[in-house]
Amino acid sequence: MPDATYFRTEFESVVNRLAFATVRLCTPQEAEGILQAAKERYVVGSPRTWWLSLKHKPVTFHYPNCDGHQHLREHAPADARKCWLVLETEEAAKPVAEIDILLAPAIRVSCRTLNII
């Protein structure tokens, strides 16, 4: 798996190409705090991959056209305006971007290395 620098470069390229002004790459300290808060809320322990140790049984949705990323807004709280994109790497420090939730589908299509939380 490529390192964080590769993913950060890919993500920044997508953001620049799509001209999204409302995307902010978090500082490493902010990213660490966001990920820690998410882990405390949703994960048991410190597994290598979060989905192996979720605190609550996940609810899954089947999208036969493989377009689940287009339905993100339907599953977010009605008042949610922002979400975080986590650049998945093997490194402990993962880059995180804060974006307008409505941009998530377009960014996800253009940058397949992202996990949306």
Overview of the molecule:
By secondary structure, the protein is an alpha+beta fold. It has one domain (4-33, 64-116). The protein is built from four helices and four strands, in the order H-E-H-H-E-E-H-E. The protein has a four-stranded antiparallel beta sheet. Strand 2 (82-87) and strand 3 form a beta hairpin. The protein is globular, with a radius of gyration of 14 Å. 15% of the residues are buried.
Summarize the structure.
By secondary structure, the protein is α+β, with helices and mostly antiparallel strands.
Largest β sheet strand count, sense and barrel closure: 4 strands, antiparallel
* Total count of strands: 4
User: What's the Cα radius of gyration?
Assistant: 14 Å
Number of domains: 1
Specify the structural class: alpha+beta
How are strands sequenced across the largest beta sheet?
1-3-2-4
Low-confidence stretches: none
Average pLDDT score: 82
Secondary-structure blueprint of this entry?
Layout: H1 4-18, E1 24-25, H2 28-42, H3 72-75, E2 82-87, E3 96-100, H4 104-110, E4 114-116
Antiparallel strand pairs: 1-3, 2-3, 2-4
Search tags:
single chain, 117 residues, alpha+beta, four-stranded antiparallel beta sheet, 4 helices, globular
